[in-house]
């Protein structure tokens, strides 16, 4: 038996057998192998100074959005895909995990022919003087597209 086969043979030791072994069935795996935690929160640590600093920075933007009832910003130049934007940071020096949706906190990525365009049209009055506003991208309005707007 090869080393890989040996590892595969022992990879699931300790787990309850089920349909998940023969098919992709996450539900079955979880239901058969989940153990609820019944303790209290005493094992949790408080937020680090870095986390508090990062969260405070994000909350500045959230407060602005709450005050204006509009997004802080949105990317009007790049149509959003899973790989369209570089890694984004709130404060790169403090972060352990990266992966904002865009390159700036609370900057919305837009899917030009999806629900994002509907969201933009709701905020048009707040962005009338914004020269960056999407001018060439129009939402589709066919019957199949309407269901995506709700």
Automatic annotation (TrEMBL):
<dbReference type="GO" id="GO:0005829">
    <property type="term" value="C:cytosol"/>
</dbReference>
<dbReference type="Pfam" id="PF02901">
    <property type="entry name" value="PFL-like"/>
</dbReference>
<dbReference type="GO" id="GO:0008861">
    <property type="term" value="F:formate C-acetyltransferase activity"/>
</dbReference>
<protein>
    <recommendedName>
        <fullName>PFL domain-containing protein</fullName>
    </recommendedName>
</protein>
<dbReference type="InterPro" id="IPR050244">
    <property type="entry name" value="Auton_GlycylRad_Cofactor"/>
</dbReference>
<dbReference type="InterPro" id="IPR004184">
    <property type="entry name" value="PFL_dom"/>
</dbReference>
<feature type="domain" description="PFL">
    <location>
        <begin position="23"/>
        <end position="115"/>
    </location>
</feature>
